[in-house]
Every structure is written in structure tokens, then in C-alpha cells.
């Protein structure tokens, strides 16, 4: 069989065919036409935009605004391709700050529909009406009466493209898409009033007032169920030079349909990478198959944004996309960290005679679960302590902060006053919560949130405690991995953050009976941790000087942190940072000495920062106890410290250096298979 190998003849397409192909790329359905014309109206500084629709926009789509209008001289070429007032040269694309800029929207519409434009500017005495077909003005613009602004009427969309018209969905579905586009622009532009009306219906399908707010427009359009669950936050990043404003629902709300309104430099766009990142954060909180409502407005330097990558402009490219998406993901995670406190749960009582829920659940036996994939979820099943002998005091203990004689002296003092560590510290009820308005403290909180590592936070939230190694180290499991962490480093950061977030609202641990500040400082100066040398001066004078400093600053410590020192020089209370946690009495003398010498009491921000750091260091120092009381270190590590880490800690990236993966279940199975 002979094959015809003659090449085809290359021909230049007719201009009408070229224009209709281009129009089909830009105007894919009525919603695309509406988006282009809404952006033109917003560029024209309109304060009110009305949209009239018939048959889902296929028969009639009319957009009326009260903007600047179109000059009569421009009506002749306004529907020709690549005619625009936004660009003069290609380099202007790097600084574009308006919506329409390529001059293709009206031209494309005129090639696939009957287009009429009625417009009036502020300088003209009357309006003008013009009719267009295939990008050309039909006849001359005719004078007419009208208000300032523009009315664009599109009739019989795709009348000359029968395949495209037949491929569209029902008029009801197309109207829903039109409504969705208008709703998103109404949320993003609350200063503009929007109205959407079906032809022949007395009441508008959607209406928002002029000079409204985003949250109010969300309530009007999407319902009070979403608006009352909204969390608002804004963030500015100097490294990658972006700003973001976001409204997202708390974890108490979820829906089967995902709703994400994303605007980048005022443009309604889509970003699959950003959407997946946000969904990944919410997956921790919401049931499978449920989604949040998210509005996000991202501002980038125009030179970092390429707006000219898609015919419909629904997609843009920008520099540092992966890095910016990761930062936004971290910010969403930070906002949701405390969102669980707003959850409401409904309990359904079991009817008499009803079978257990587990018995009614279908079991999917088609998916095999291998032993190496099994994850222990109940920490009470097995712990490391079962396989170890009684743990003795570690040689690597932290008691090096004070000498043995110093410890004995302090313990002897406690004995004389009938004041053991367990009996001397008694919790006082917290004061009524007060709002913090000091900018220095708010800056400290923002710094904590900016440094949050989402991956490490996820590990901490879902860990299962395994056992205590010594004063500094503990083991825990996350999924199929076994980790060793520096509990001292983690707890120090935890106590620092508790001081920052409980500022002015700290509970107190009462010291009963109160301890002499001067005697405690003398014990501290006798310890090796103080580093005293004869050149520093007499210890008694140094202790007296430290007492004077602390008594002068006592009102600050009492007001902001719950550390009370009386006028007689007695330590009466310490801050309570985590429930059931008591600081080590052994390290109290050195802690008070460091408050006097290491805290910068002159500058507000440095004062709060250094005080919180010193206090956190003191609270993180715990001694290994030989007794079997409920307050010994292994018990506190398991039942006090680790639950607090899971609940409160916002881990910074630097703590990744304090956690080590020892092994994982698949690796262990490979080892055992070789044995």
C-alpha cells in the first residue's frame, strides 16, 4: 500500500478565524467575560457595579458602572485587539498595577457576541452609544442620555461558535459561576457596591453595600455561619518582600466544598501550591473530606510578578514562590495553634439496644497493613521504664550550678523552717486576665510566631512519650520514628513562651514561709556558678547591692511576672508557668543573683526579654530525685513537661538541632529480616 508523503500546504489563516480562535482562549464562558469587565469597571474607579443576567449570561450579560467612562474619541478603536490605555512599551509590564492591560477582553467579546457600549465621561455633556461586531465599530457612536459611567451589553454569547455554546453547562450552572466571580470581587473590594440581578426577577440575587467591610460582605454572601468563625491576621515579610492579609475560618467550621479566595496584587488568581499547603495545615484539625473557608490577599513587588502567563490571567508567576508559600503555610499554622479552644462538640446518646459503633463500621480488607507500618497510639501500653532498673542520679546532672555545700546549706535552711521543696511552693490562684498593650511584649509574641517551625510543631503535637534517659534527654515516638530530644532546651523555650504569653497574668507559687533574699544571695555567691573572685569585692557588700537592685525592681516583677519580694527583703512568691510544675529550690539562689546582675533593667524591651530568658533557664533546671514521690523528674517529664510541650510550645527552627531521629520502624524491620 503506497503512502502519500506529500507535505501539507501552509496557509495564512483568515483574520476572522484568527480573532475567533484568540477570543475562544480568553472568553471561555460567561464568567470569564464578567471577570474581564468587572476588572475594567474597577480600573475606572467605580463605586457601584450592577450586573444583569439572562439565561446564565448566554442571552444577556450587562455590566453597568459609575466610573470614569470611555472618551468619545476612543470608541472607534476600543474593541480592536491590543488597544489599551495601560501600556506604552513592553517594559511597563514589570510595573503593571491595573487589571486589564492587553486590550483583548472587549475585542474578544465582540468576535463571539453582539456587543453594545454606552458611556459618558464627566467632561462630556451627553453620553454615546456604539455597536460593535468582529472588533469593528458599526456606523458612528450615537448621542444619548445617560449617567456618568459605562454600560456594556453582551447579547447572544457564542452565537457564531455552536460547539462552544453546546459544550457549556445549563444556564443555572453558568449563573452560579457568574455569581461566584462577583462574590469574590465583592469580598475583596468592600468599598465598592455590587449588585447581581436575574432578568425579570424583582429581587437581586446578590447585593453588597458601598463602603462595607470584608467580614460584613462575607456574612452577606456566604452566611453568618462562616463570618462568625473568621480569624483575621496580617503579616509582612521583609526577606521575600511580601505582605498578606487573610481571613480564615477556625477549626470549628468545615464544609464539604473548598472555598479559597486568592488575590495577588488585587487580581483574582489560583495557586494550586498555596491551596495544597493551606489544606495540609487544616488536615490536622478537620475531618477527612472537609475544608475551610479562606480569603487571602497577597501583595508583592510588581517587578517580582509575571502577570502575562495565561490568556485569562487567572494564573500568575512570581519570584520565590516556594519560599513564600512555605512562609504563608507557617502563618496559617500559627493562627490555628490555639483555635482548638473554640471547638464545640455534640454528643449523641446511644439508644437502648443499639449495637456498638465499631460493630457497624465496614472493614476494608483489601488494603493490607504491614507490621512495620503499625503505629503505637496509646502511651500507657508500654514505656521504657519497664525494661530498666531503678534509675540512679546521673553524672551529667545540672547540680553543677551550685556546690554540694551550697545545696546542703539551702536544704538545711529549708529544714529549719519546716520548708521542704514540696511544701514551700504552693500555688496561688491566677489574677483575672488583663489585656497586654505594651508594644515590646507584643513584639516578643510576634517574634515567637514568626520563628515557628510547622514540621516540628506537627511532630510535637502528635508525639507519644517513651521514657526519660537522664536530666537532659528523653525519648518519644512520632508515627514510626523514634526521637531523642534535649528536654532542657525544649523546656527552656516553653517556659520563656509561657512568660511572654502570660505577661501580666501569671499565676503565683507562694513560698511558705518566705525566704530571706540576702541569705539566698549569700548562698549563690558561695557557689561555683557565681564565679566570685576576691577582686570582685566583699561578698556581703555584693549581696547587699544585689538585694537593693531587686527590691527597687520588685514592683515590676510583681506586676508583670508574679514574683513578689517584700519590703523586708523576703521572697514571697514565684511565677507559676505550667500547672503542677515547681522550679528547683537548689537553683533558686543563683537565679536571684542572675536577676540582679544579668537582666538589663534600663530598657523596657531588653528588660522583659532578659528577665524571661533568665527565668526560663531557672525553671528548666531540674534535679534527679531518688525518692518515689510524684514530683520526681521522670514523673514530671512524662506527666507535666511533655503534655505542656504538646499544648503550648511554638517551636522555633533552632530547636531542630536539639532533636535527633534514632531509628524508625521500617529500618528496624530490615535489620531483623537480615538476622
From TrEMBL:
Low complexity bias spans: 396-407
Transmembrane segments: none
Ranges for domain DNA mismatch repair protein S5: 218-337
Annotated Gene3D superfamilies: 3.30.230.10, Histidine kinase-like ATPase, C-terminal domain
InterPro entries in UniProt: DNA_mismatch_repair_CS (IPR014762), DNA_mismatch_S5_2-like (IPR013507), HATPase_C_sf (IPR036890), Mlh1_C (IPR032189), MutL/Mlh/PMS (IPR002099), MutL/Mlh/Pms-like (IPR038973), Ribosomal_Su5_D2-typ_SF (IPR020568), Ribsml_uS5_D2-typ_fold_subgr (IPR014721)
Localisation: Nucleus
Keywords: DNA damage, DNA repair, Nucleus
Classification via SMART domains: DNA_mis_repair
Keyword field contains DNA repair: yes
Start and end residues of each stretch annotated as Disordered: 394-415
Keyword DNA repair: yes
A GO molecular-function annotation: ATP binding
Main localisation: nucleus
Protein's GO biological process: mismatch repair
PROSITE patterns listed in its UniProt record: DNA_MISMATCH_REPAIR_1 (PS00058)
A Pfam match: DNA_mis_repair
Gene Ontology CC terms: MutLalpha complex
Family note: Belongs to the DNA mismatch repair MutL/HexB family.
Classification via NCBIfam families: mutl
Stated name of the protein: GL11208
Organism from which the protein derives: Drosophila persimilis (Fruit fly)
Amino acid at each position: 500500500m503506497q503512502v502519500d508523503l506529500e507535505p501539507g500546504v501552509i496557509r495564512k489563516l483568515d483574520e476572522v478565524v484568527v480573532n475567533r480562535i484568540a477570543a475562544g482562549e480568553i472568553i471561555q464562558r460567561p464568567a470569564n467575560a464578567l471577570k474581564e469587565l468587572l476588572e475594567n469597571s474597577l480600573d475606572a474607579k467605580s463605586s457601584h457595579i450592577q450586573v444583569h443576567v439572562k439565561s446564565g449570561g448566554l442571552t444577556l450579560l450587562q455590566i453597568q458602572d459609575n466610573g470614569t467612562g470611555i472618551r468619545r474619541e476612543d470608541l472607534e478603536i476600543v474593541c480592536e485587539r491590543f488597544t489599551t490605555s495601560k501600556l506604552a512599551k513592553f517594559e511597563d509590564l514589570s510595573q503593571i498595577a491595573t487589571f486589564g492591560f492587553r486590550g483583548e477582553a472587549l475585542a474578544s467579546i465582540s468576535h463571539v457576541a453582539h456587543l453594545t457600549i454606552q458611556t459618558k465621561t464627566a467632561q462630556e455633556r451627553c453620553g454615546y452609544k456604539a455597536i460593535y461586531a468582529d472588533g469593528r465599530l458599526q456606523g458612528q457612536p450615537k448621542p444619548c442620555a445617560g449617567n456618568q459611567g459605562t454600560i456594556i451589553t453582551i447579547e447572544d454569547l457564542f452565537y457564531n461558535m455552536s460547539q462552544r455554546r453546546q459544550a457549556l453547562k445549563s444556564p443555572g450552572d453558568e449563573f452560579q459561576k457568574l455569581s461566584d466571580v462577583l462574590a469574590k470581587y465583592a469580598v475583596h473590594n468592600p468599598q465598592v457596591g455590587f449588585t447581581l440581578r436575574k432578568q425579570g426577577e424583582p429581587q437581586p440575587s446578590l447585593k453588597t453595600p458601598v463602603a462595607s467591610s470584608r467580614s460584613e460582605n462575607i456574612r452577606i454572601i456566604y452566611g453568618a455561619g462562616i463570618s462568625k468563625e473568621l480569624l483575621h491576621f496580617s503579616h509582612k515579610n521583609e526577606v521575600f518582600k511580601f505582605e498578606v492579609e487573610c481571613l480564615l475560618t477556625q477549626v470549628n467550621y468545615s464544609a464539604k466544598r473548598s472555598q479559597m479566595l486568592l488575590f495577588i496584587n488585587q487580581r483574582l488568581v489560583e495557586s494550586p501550591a498555596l491551596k495544597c499547603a493551606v489544606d495540609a495545615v487544616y488536615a490536622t484539625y478537620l475531618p477527612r473530606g472537609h475544608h475551610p473557608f479562606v480569603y487571602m490577599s497577597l501583595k508583592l513587588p510588581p517587578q517580582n510578578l509575571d502577570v502575562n502567563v495565561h490568556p485569562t490571567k487567572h494564573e500568575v508567576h512570581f519570584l520565590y514562590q516556594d519560599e513564600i508559600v512555605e512562609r504563608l503555610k507557617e502563618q496559617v499554622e500559627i493562627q490555628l495553634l490555639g483555635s482548638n479552644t473554640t471547638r464545640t462538640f455534640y454528643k449523641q446518646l446511644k439508644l437502648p439496644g443499639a449495637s456498638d459503633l465499631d460493630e457497624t463500621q465496614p472493614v476494608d480488607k483489601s488494603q493490607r497493613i504491614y507490621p512495620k507500618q503499625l503505629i503505637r497510639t496509646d502511651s500507657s501500653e508500654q514505656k521504657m521504664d519497664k525494661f530498666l532498673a531503678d534509675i540512679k542520679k546521673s553524672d551529667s546532672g545540672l547540680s553543677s550550678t551550685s556546690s554540694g555545700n551550697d545545696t546542703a546549706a539551702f536544704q538545711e535552711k529549708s529544714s529549719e523552717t519546716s520548708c521542704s521543696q514540696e511544701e514551700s511552693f504552693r500555688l496561688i490562684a491566677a489574677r483575672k486576665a488583663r489585656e497586654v498593650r505594651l508594644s515590646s511584649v507584643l513584639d516578643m509574641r510576634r517574634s515567637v510566631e514568626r520563628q515557628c517551625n510547622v514540621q516540628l510543631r506537627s511532630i510535637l503535637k502528635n508525639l507519644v512519650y517513651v521514657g526519660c534517659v537522664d536530666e537532659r534527654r528523653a525519648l518519644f515516638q512520632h508515627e514510626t520514628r523514634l526521637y531523642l530530644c534535649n528536654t532542657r532546651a525544649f523546656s527552656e523555650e516553653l517556659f520563656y513562651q509561657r512568660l511572654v504569653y502570660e505577661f501580666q497574668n501569671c499565676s503565683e507559687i507562694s513560698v511558705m514561709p518566705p525566704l530571706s533574699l540576702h541569705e539566698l544571695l549569700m548562698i549563690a555567691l558561695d557557689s561555683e556558678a557565681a564565679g566570685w573572685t576576691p577582686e570582685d569585692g566583699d561578698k556581703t557588700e555584693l549581696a547587699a547591692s544585689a538585694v537593693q537592685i531587686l527590691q527597687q525592681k520588685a514592683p515590676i516583677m510583681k506586676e508583670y511576672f508574679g514574683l513578689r519580694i517584700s519590703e523586708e527583703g523576703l521572697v514571697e512568691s514565684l511565677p507559676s508557668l505550667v500547672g503542677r510544675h515547681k522550679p528547683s529550690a537548689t537553683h533558686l539562689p543563683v537565679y536571684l543573683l542572675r536577676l540582679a546582675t544579668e537582666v538589663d533593667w534600663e530598657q523596657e524591651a531588653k528588660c522583659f526579654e532578659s528577665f524571661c530568658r533568665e527565668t526560663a533557664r531557672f525553671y528548666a533546671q531540674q534535679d534527679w530525685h531518688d525518692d518515689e514521690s510524684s514530683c520526681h523528674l521522670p514523673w514530671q517529664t512524662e506527666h507535666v513537661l511533655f503534655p505542656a510541650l504538646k499544648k503550648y510550645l511554638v517551636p522555633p527552627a533552632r530547636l531542630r538541632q536539639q532533636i535527633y531521629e534514632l531509628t524508625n520502624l521500617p529500618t528496624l524491620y530490615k535489620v531483623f529480616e537480615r538476622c
